[in-house]
């Protein structure tokens, strides 16, 4: 079964969903590491409770993205990580990791890409007034939320209600990510 690392910058609800799916036997993979670029993020607490090793590493303490990613790569190699799963990791992946993990880095984004890439996709979609938005799971390349699409699911916007719309999107994310990874890893 594939060993994977989850990269996250925030709450880690997607990490949680993936970990729960593994525990429930719905996803055949092994989460061996959580990497966060935000030491103290809530995902660290989730990982601790889940019994998954965490690697908190602040990019600002490195003089370049390359050196920062080399430090991460060393840890990934040490733990024999085969796949990188981005789950709210709010940072572009650089050449070091892209070259070490070709077509082995997956991301989830809370919009129907290529609409609303980048930060606050849900807010941008609501400001734009779209009636439907959704969730995209895709391979990662050097761009911002670009890369070949693996799966998408539509979510209807609750007009004027950001909180409810966000809730719907997160619920879809948690299901779609697990399902897509399972398809990817079982073929
Ligand atoms: C998720 O909605 C994820 O799609 C988004 O960050 C959130 C993280 O939530 N990612 C992006 O916007 C990537 N551009 P979580 O920490 O609770 O999993």
Give a written overview of the molecule:
There is one protein chain. This protein has 187 residues and is of the alpha/beta class. The N and C termini lie close together (12 Å). It has a seven-stranded mixed beta sheet, with helices on both faces. The radius of gyration is 16 Å and the shape is globular. It contains six helices and seven strands. The chain binds glycinamide ribonucleotide (GAR). The site of glycinamide ribonucleotide has 14 residues, from helix 1 and strand 5.
Oligomer: single chain
Distinct helical segment count? 6
What is the tally of beta strands?
Answer: 7
> What is the overall pLDDT average?
98
Observed structural traits:
alpha/beta; 7-stranded mixed β-sheet; 6 helices; 39% helix; binds glycinamide ribonucleotide
Topology:
Layout: E1 3-8, H1 13-23, E2 30-36, H2 42-50, E3 54-56, H3 65-78, E4 83-86, H4 95-100, E5 105-109, H5 121-128, E6 132-139, E7 149-156, H6 162-185
Helix pairs in contact: 1-2, 1-6
Glycinamide ribonucleotide binds next to helix 1 and strand 5.
Q: Outline of this structure?
A:
This protein is of the alpha/beta class. The protein has helices at residues 13-23, 42-50, 65-78, 95-100, 121-128, 162-185; strands at residues 3-8, 30-36, 54-56, 83-86, 105-109, 132-139, 149-156. The chain binds glycinamide ribonucleotide.
């Amino acid at each position: 079964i594939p060993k994977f690392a989850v990269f996250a910058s925030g709450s880690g609800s997607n990490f949680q969903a993936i970990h729960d799916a593994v525990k429930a036997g719905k996803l055949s993979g092994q989460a061996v590491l959580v990497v966060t670029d935000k030491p103290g993020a809530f995902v660290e607490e989730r990982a601790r409770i889940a019994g998954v090793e965490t690697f908190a590493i602040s990019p600002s303490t490195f003089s370049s993205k390359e050196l920062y990613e080399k430090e991460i790569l060393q840890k990934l190699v040490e733990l024999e990580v085969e796949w990188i799963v981005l789950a709210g990791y709010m940072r572009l992946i650089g050449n070091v990791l892209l070259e070490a993990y070709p077509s082995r880095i997956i991301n989830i984004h809370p919009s129907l890409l290529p609409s609303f890439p980048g930060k606050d996709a849900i807010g941008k979609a609501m400001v734009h007034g779209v009636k439907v938005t959704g969730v995209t799971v895709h391979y990662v390349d050097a761009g911002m939320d670009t890369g070949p699409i693996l799966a998408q699911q539509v979510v209807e916007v609750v007009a004027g209600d950001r909180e409810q719309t966000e809730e719907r999107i997160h619920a879809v994310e948690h299901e779609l990510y697990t399902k897509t990874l399972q398809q990817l890893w079982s073929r």
